[in-house]
Amino acid sequence: MKSYKKLLACGLTLAMMAGMTACVDEVEPNSTPGGTAPSTTSGTTAPASSADPNDNAATDEKVKDIDTSTYTPSGNAGTIKFLSFYSIESDQKGKGQCLIFKSDLYGGDIATETCASGDAYFDKLGSLIASDASPDIVTKDAFMFPGTVSRGMFTPLDEYIDYTTPLWADMADIIESYGYQGKHYYYPHRITTSYALNYSKKTIEENNLPDPYELYKNGEWTWDAWRNMMLQFCDRDENNIGLYTTDTTLTPLVATTGTVLIDVQADGTITNNIADPNVTRAMGFYETLNRDGVMYAKQLGDWVSPQTFATNCDRLLFLAMEPEWSYIAETEQLQNPTGVESDIHDTVSEFAFVPWPRDPEADQYYQAYDTYGFLIPKGAKNIAGAVDFINLFRVYDTDPAVIDQVRNDHIAPEPITYTEGKYAGERRWQITWGEQEYDLWREMCDPEKFVFVTEDAFGFNSTFWTQYAEIMTAVVYDGESWTQKSSEFSPIIDSTIEEYRF
Fold first, then answer.
1. Is residue 2 in some structural domain?
2. Number of domains observed in the structure of the chain
3. Is 148 exposed, middle or buried (0-12, 13-18, 19+ CB in 10 A)?
4. Which DSSP symbol is given to 3?
5. 117-168: per-residue pLDDT in tens?
6. DSSP string spanning 213-272?
7. Which domain holds residue 309?
8. How far apart are CA 350 and CA 206, in angstroms?
9. Residues 278 and 230 both lie in one domain
10. Is 1 a domain residue?
């Protein structure tokens, strides 16, 4: 399996700490192939956040100073065409970088074309490539390994970016792991969290439950401790729910065993692990949770967004979703209603999160992880500008001064004021992260704390993942037998794998 314990910890820590927060008005990033919002029964997209549309008006946010010693920008990057299902210029993971890109230092601009997520996104990208109207850059959401990369949709970056240089060396192993037939199309600029267990600190306290964070710090956060907490919570009220998880977020528990459902290697080796004893044991644990009665039973609808969780966290103990996005969206739901009059500023959220609990039988603390980065589609016209953009994000993640400033932007944000629009002169709402939450979020990306593994079952095509999701949800939510369902599906996995071997 792909494991990155050997990555240089120092450089990675710098890269991880520079990560910005996720956009709270978009669907959950990397939730399912194509980026559609997860659901146990449908492809329903996440509801919009409570934020006012005027929140995207111009502000007096300052452009950060950035080091140019590791990469010298061209100064004339020009306009890059960006295809996505969200605006990267209003996304907290990219807003600061886009301001720098559009400054005189880089001389760039961004022309964004948005479209629906999911299969519609891939169809749009394929159509633009075929008609010689390719965008210059897309996010990792367009990257499925070996799916879309095997279809020749992207430009190899080897001749444009040398990943052995000091700027990229700490990501070299990850870049190499996504190589395809000797070429490298995806240069992720940072490690990021995959999924976690989100919860309300207020709910934990009011129900006299152990603090999950303290259990984690004390090395006591295990499958059994997690199960016992959910049992205690659900025993107190028949309306209480222990865990909401989706088709996609079922896999991180399996990953804590150190084994993934499907493992794709850069040399073309693809392994079907559906019958592996570790996978069977993890899915058996899910079966136990189903029998315990702690699993979600659609009490709040088919799809529970972070916003829904925020207003129902007194009865739903854990929400299994990407923590960066969820933490912000949950907080915004309570602190940033439509308009600025009722905004709550400078108040740390009641929400928190922890990594998935450690498998008590595993030899190390394994976790699923993710990356963030960009690709240049085949046929892009402004490759030089796109390369400038990609390198900028890596510089932003490794500049020590920016790293310090980004942390402070999270835990003690300076007020930002609208300069245009309906709320000109008013303060824009910003989340104030708790120091515990921010530092844990960075720690969850530290290879000194975890052994990271990658689940590659998402990387073939959406039809295949939908089939996989259906058998997993049938076991977790409908009480069907994993042994039976997995044996039925294993031949389908094998036939799919054969299509993608190289």
1. no
2. 2
3. buried
4. B
5. 888 899 999 999 999 999 999 999 899 999 999 989 999 999 999 999 999 9
6. HHHHHTT--BHHHHHHHHHHHHHH-TT-EEEE--SGGGHHHHHTTT--SEEE-TTS-EEE
7. 196-368+453-500
8. 12
9. yes
10. no
